[in-house]
Structure formats: structure tokens, C-alpha cells
Amino acid sequence: MKKDTQKLWGGRFTAPTDELVEEFTASINFDKRLYAEDIAGSMAHARMLGRQNIIPAADVEPIINGLQKIKAEIERGEFNFSVANEDIHMNIESRLSEIIGPEIAGRLHTGRSRNDQVALDLRLYLRAQLAQVEELIADLIRVLLDKAEAEITVIMPGFTHLQQAQPVLFAHHLLAYVEMFKRDSDRLSDCRKRLNLSPLGSGALAGSSFALDRQSVAEELGFSGITANSLDAVSDRDGVAEALFDFSLLMIHLSRFCEELVLWSSVQFNFITLSDSFCTGSSIMPQKKNPDVPELIRGKSGRVVGSLVNLLMTLKSLPLAYNKDMQEDKEPFFDALDTVVGSLRIMAPMIKEMRVNKEVMGRQAGAGFSTATEIADYLVRKGLPFRAAHEVVGKVVAFCEANELDLTELTLGQWLEFSQLFAEDLFTLLAPQDAVDAKDLYGGTATAQVLEQIRRLRSAFN
């Protein structure tokens, strides 16, 4: 089936575009979300064309007014997006032609191509959206800091290999995720800096023969500079790929946290209780309370990583400059962005409403011989080499396991059977709180150190 719609680029063609081709190649169904960036770029471009006397100065105001009218129509939901017009650029230009006439509207595209136009739109959109994600990360960090400070006295078992390791403050555990999310935010900020160069003026691939003032357009749109190579500018999607990597790592961090929330909220752990508002029930088992939100965030991490791989495989081996393949950059990015934003928006209130079961954590913190390392360090301070101290304490643990005893149940006489270096002061090291307090150095889990770290982080995220 053929369509007779006249294309804005149709002068060279003698046959209309097949309807299947229109449907297959059109991007308007997803790139329409770039409308605000496209219109902002067009306004800045039109003003510059007028200043440079490339188009009549009298044409600038009707173009600007027409674009503003189009923006209002879109935001009121009155704009008719057409697949026949392929993308957001052609939809807006076609409507502008209807509003102010084809002669004046046709001058807007002077000195630019859809290639540098979409590159501009993407950079503007990325810049704004990454800043939004950074703020959502900051919101989550502030909630974690509040929770850490509120639960500063809670001690929990720390794990390696998911086996009992050493006691730590629950607040210290939360701050580990704060550090991850802080790095995620820093990466997004760095990404914004790298992509904050205007590609407009690069044309289709070779630049422009018009005396464009690229710098003034860049300044009007808030860019820190302009791209240096026209071929690179129209074919570069590093900003999208980098953002998707940053999103992927952010979601990996969220998934690690969510896996712990799932474990901790189970009957077997019972470290925390998630609010009913963030859980669901079973259709058959009336007693069930399922942690669906953290499970779903955990699952969505794979979706975002998939978007990254999708784009990287699209870009792989593409020759310079622009290729239609690059239209495939937007859907994975938009999907990943929506997934990240949705996950962060629900994660913060879920943590805020989470109840910490202090007594359960405290009991478990001392289980599994978790203070054994403190005893080895005690022997080292008495002059024993660490490897020898490690062996002594290992034998103590083996004895306790064989006799179903805890370290706190051994008498001094029993300790002396393993080493004559043990004395009464040993018993000040066997409680989880003692082990926590001993780690009083920068980055450690001692209460004073954790409180100071909370203070430093609050100053950065106030």
C-alpha cells in the first residue's frame, strides 16, 4: 500500500513512501517526548539565523510565536502527532508550516540537519533528566541518613559469603549503600559535564557553509561549549551509553540492597519489617506478606542492563557518520530512565517506613563466634604473631563447637588451656558492642566514626 503524503524531504523522490516503511522507520511514537528540547533548540537556532542575517529578521518573530503555539498545543494534548511525518522534528516543522505558512517556516531548517538537531535534543534531554535522577538519589541518601541516625544503637551481624563475620552497626551497613549511591550520583554528574557541548551547526556530517554563530546558540541553551568535530558530533551517542551504564550500576546497587531487604524481612532473619503499604499478599495463602517492591526493583535491574547492552550492540561497528540504526538509541534509554526513576521514587519511602527489629539483630550479632577476630587481635597486642593467634582462636572455636558452647561461656581457666596470654581483660572484648567500639578509625564501624560520617554526608546532601 502506498501513501501520497508529501514529505518535507520528498523533492528527489518520484514515488510515495510505502505505508509499511513509514510505520517501520517512524520514531514519533517514542521521540515525541523530546518536543520541549526540539522547540527550545529551534527557537535558539531561529534567533541566531536572524542575528546573522541568514534569514530575514522579520521572519524570526513569527517562527518563535509559531513554535510557542505548538508547544502549548502539545502540552494541552491537542497536537496531532503523525507517523507520516516520521519524527518529532518533522512533526513540529510540518505544523509550523500550517501555522505561519511554508515560506517562513521553511527557513527554520537553514544551516542544520535532523542529524545535528536530534543530537542537540538528546543532549538537552539527557542533561535535564540526569539532573532529576541525581536529585532522586539525593532524596534516597537523605532517607538512609535519617534511618541510620535514628537506629544508631542497633548492632547487627556483618556477613561475608553470607556467613556470620563480625558485628557492625546497622547504621554502618546503611552507610555502605550511601557510598554506592553517592558514587552513582557523581558518575551521572560527570556524564552531564561531558555531554554539555552543543552539536548544532554540525549539519548532516560536514558542518555548514552558512556563517552560523554556534557559540551564541550554545550559550543561549546553557551549554558549556560546542563540539569540535562535525562527524563525531552527529554520530556520537557516548552520552546515552554512559548514562545507561550509570543507570545499570545504580540499579545493580539497588538490587543488592533489595536482595538484603528480601532476606532481612523473611521469617528466618526477621531483621526488619516492611510496611504493609509496600507489600502484597498471596491469592491462596492468607498469612503471606510478600516483599514485592524490593523483588521487582531487583528484577528490573536486568531490564536496565539489557538496555545498555542493546545500545552498545547498536553502536558496534557503525561507520561514520549518522546511520538510521542510531534511531534505536532512544527506546532503550527512555525505558531505562523510566525504570530508574520509578525505582528510586518508591525506594525512599519504603526505607522510611521500614521498621528495624533491634532485639533480633542484637541477638544475632553475637552468634556464630563473631567476636573471634577481636580475640586474635587481643593476642597480637600481647606479642603473639597474628598467624599464631589465628590458630589459637581457631582451636578455641573448634572446642566451643564440639561442646556446644559460646565464647562468652568459657571460664578463664578454659581460655588459659589454649594460651597463657589470656587474662581477665579478655572478657571486655567478647560482647558485640565491644567489637564495634574497637573499630574506632576512619571508615570503621565504631559509633563515633559512624556519627561523624553521617555528619559529613549530611553536609554534602543538605
What does this structure look like?
- With 462 residues, the protein is mostly helical.
- The chain has three domains: 101 residues, Fumarase C, Chain B, domain 1 (Orthogonal Bundle); 249 residues, Fumarase/aspartase (Central domain) (Fumarase C, Chain A, domain 2), CATH 1.20.200.10; 93 residues, Orthogonal Bundle (Ribonucleotide Reductase Protein R1, domain 1), CATH 1.10.40.
- The protein is 59% helix and 5% strand.
- The protein has 19 helices and six strands.
- It has a two-stranded antiparallel ribbon with strand order 1-2. A two-stranded parallel ribbon has the order 3-4. A two-stranded antiparallel ribbon has the order 5-6.
- Strand 3, helix 9 and strand 4 form a beta-alpha-beta unit.
- The radius of gyration is 31 Å and the shape is elongated.
- The two termini are 60 Å apart.
Task: Kindly summarize this structure in a few lines.
Helix content is 59%, strand content 5%. The chain has 19 helices and six strands. Helix 3 (35-51) packs across helix 9 (214-220).
How are the elements arranged and paired?
Blueprint: H1 19-25, H2 28-31, H3 35-51, H4 60-75, H5 88-100, H6 102-105, H7 114-150, E1 155-160, E2 163-169, H8 170-195, E3 197-198, H9 214-220, E4 225-226, H10 230-235, H11 238-264, E5 272-273, H12 292-315, H13 330-353, E6 355-356, H14 358-365, H15 372-381, H16 386-402, H17 412-416, H18 432-438, H19 447-460
Parallel strand pairs: 3-4
Antiparallel strand pairs: 1-2, 5-6
Helix pairs in contact: 3-4, 3-7, 3-9, 4-5, 7-8, 7-13, 7-19, 8-11, 11-12, 11-13, 12-13, 15-16
